[in-house]
């Protein structure tokens, strides 16, 4: 049995669902999931389809070639095609905060996340002990203003060496350069500790405390050249009140950060996220 | 321009999305919404499709006849077909609590609910003043143990006279007889003031207070012969604490009841609810 | 039986709870509610106390004079003292959106809000029909750039004539002048249709849609000279997704606005809100 | 500097706040937190006070003796007095599910929980690897019908040996005997994977799925002789829909269980929970 997940977007057109499902049907595919969305304002069609193929000799590569030939030009269609049984390979970037790291490694160890985690990179040595506990290679690459370019080159070399599919900034406290970002478009997920676009930038819990908000949040998003402005994948909130200090905000926020980052990674690695412009379509 | 909403369920079968969308396409339909769901455990296919037809002479009746001919037997398919521009006609049943009534009439007056409300029925005269304020006919039908059968007959006569499509029990404090329920299957929506199945029956806020819960809820559901056991449409919750009395629970619960009932009505009249067994599929 | 609600704040000092509760006790007061909060960072003490007095000849005015004499200078104490049985008088300011107005008047008619509403002011005539339904005086005062000063003078005259205690901007679409605001410090509550400080200013739902957020919110706050920057009283949120249009955001937001505004009014009129700097302490 | 946390409840009486704060003041205590609650229906007074004492020679034991002498009989007062700097010692009971264990140990390793965890007990050997990773003693005590009494005796011996203050059932899949429970009244916290009192007993996610609920929850509570009926400490919920299978419920529920259990433990070890009857007062 083989299984394909297709993510598609193109200008909306009558009959497109019929045509694509027909294409899969002709190849003996069994559609086990189909969700589509039409952005009526922009007239864009989005679809996610999971299909199973159990005949001998079925080839994903052939399917993809035929799919391209039939649709890409004619429908001005953009697609992503995934082997649904392949486990994406993650690199976790961390600094000194350990709560997201413990959370992700706990989920990984529990079998909750269908991924491989062959690499943890940090600009500080502090969390090597956490990596060791979970027996995951830990690479300490110090970053200073002077050495940033070299450090990023070293990071990228490690990422390529380990065939990384997704970079997760799990409270990594360095800004990634535009060059770095450009090489991994929609492949870097960050967790920001505020309800974006409120409290962009550093120290959002302090800013939220100053403003006297009654709810704080966390936001996971793809990293783009504009800091904290990338496409949002997931957000969650929790209530606070006057009895809570900044420290309480930070402590309550930890749970938000863990959950929001984990949900975003899960959606990404299950190929449920389609980025369009600066927004995301999140299929269920 | 005409617009049809189709709700479908049938045993799952390869190619069914293709076949149905093809059928609509052949009649020059423009599919503006499609959502499907497969219950993998039971192998049941569910779909909701909205299509627009702008050619002269298009007839919904003809469409339906052809649809029946092609699908109903062959696919063991159950369907509901609605003229999307028709406004469902609601009868509101109330007793003495006025908050849900005020809420629904406010939404109706604001144009928020795409319905007609030609009839309010109550077993008490108290809320006639509310009906008058919104200029809606109010029918007081007293109900006692002795007169229950007659009273229900009178209610049903009024419902038929006003061509009612949906009965809304907006904190109506009488149990509907099985005979009555049987005549309006999946056409009576109730609001229960607890997070079902917790606190079935009378005085759920008191029971919740006794149990010392930290969250209370409200549930809207279709009415079936089994009290508080019908298919759930919507639920919502709010946090409570030891500082809250039963009265506080009741007061906080009012907002839940209003919102949960309004959401359920909206989903129903927009044909987004498909009942299957004792559950609902709620399309987005 | 008489009942007093006291709101107090002053620099924190050892023994202050003892001293104040002793003061009430000496006057045969029965403390039925006491909540205190210490802002440890700023070393400020906040307290809310409700006390009942059932002896003949007890005088709130005398109590207040003695309280001032004992505490205000010595403790650098700021206080508000309310007769808990007095019903605050509200003026509702509206424009064309009617959902918050219907919601507040429904709650008022249901007896849910312990207030009087002797006045509705609008810069448009459209909602007079709503006021009429609930038999509340409606004053249409048109506002243009040229007539703004006059219009506000007329508004203020009406507010004084009706002895208004709290002004509620129930989706009132005019900016209040600084002069007006200065006359009613912490006595004007606004509902802003975003999760402040995100999406300050006009068209927040459109801005939220553009940004692709996964959660939208509403915020009630006291009006200050800085637009949308006043002390926040209450916030609430609801999830949205890519399937929702701007219109859906607006529709979902209506329920948020209604609830958040109603909760803020309730907290204010029950004297549970203490403004300090640009923040609020909300007692339970 | 020494710090005391007092939890008190007694029949309500005029002047009690004054008297107790006076008592602390007389011993040069600085009250840094005070929250009180009066159950008006039962006329019970509840209070939590944190006080700091920095004079030489201050003795918590003396304070307690004097407190008892002055209050316990006279006020029919029940109290708990804690040295706020002492770290409670936890025993974690687990079976095969590892998510709550990973979560708690991650929080512990992060310094998020002010506790010691000297002991993990399991009726299965599977999770020894998790204990090893965090370098915590793991005791495998098999439990069968035949050996239950012995097994519990062995558990209790280990608990006493390690001077355990709180037992946490972190998805421990055995029912604790009444005798065991009686020895640790309000000292055993369980996490139940439903929104109690809905879905008491085994397989709550399956039951929730069958009932077609739109929201699932988790509940932490003290263990009593009546299964799933003990005083509730914390509850949390998450929305589900028809697209979610039982497996999805279980997966979504894991995050609920982790958070709800962690919050309950935190509240307990910070002495913010006061059990009264079958309910809890949770101070902020």
TrEMBL record, chains A, B, C, D:
Residues 5-80 form the ACT domain. Its EC number is 3.5.1.10. It comes from the Bacteria. It holds the Pfam family Formyl_trans_N. GO terms for biological process: 'de novo' IMP biosynthetic process; one-carbon metabolic process. InterPro entries: ACT-like_dom_sf (IPR045865), ACT_dom (IPR002912), Formyl-FH4-Hydrolase_C (IPR041729), Formyl_transf_N (IPR002376), Formyl_transf_N_sf (IPR036477), PurU (IPR004810), PurU_ACT (IPR044074). Pathway: Purine metabolism; IMP biosynthesis via de novo pathway; formate from 10-formyl-5,6,7,8-tetrahydrofolate: step 1/1. It catalyses: (6R)-10-formyltetrahydrofolate + H2O = (6S)-5,6,7,8-tetrahydrofolate + formate + H(+). Gene3D superfamilies: 3.30.70.260, Formyl transferase, N-terminal domain (3.40.50.170). The active site is at residue 228. GO terms for molecular function: formyltetrahydrofolate deformylase activity. Keywords: Hydrolase, One-carbon metabolism, Purine biosynthesis. PROSITE patterns: ACT (PS51671). The keyword Hydrolase applies. The keyword Hydrolase applies. Catalyzes the hydrolysis of 10-formyltetrahydrofolate (formyl-FH4) to formate and tetrahydrofolate (FH4). NCBIfam families: PRK06027.1 (NF004684), PurU (TIGR00655). Belongs to the PurU family. HAMAP family: PurU. This is Formyltetrahydrofolate deformylase. It comes from Leeuwenhoekiella blandensis (strain CECT 7118 / CCUG 51940 / KCTC 22103 / MED217) (Flavobacterium sp. (strain MED217)).
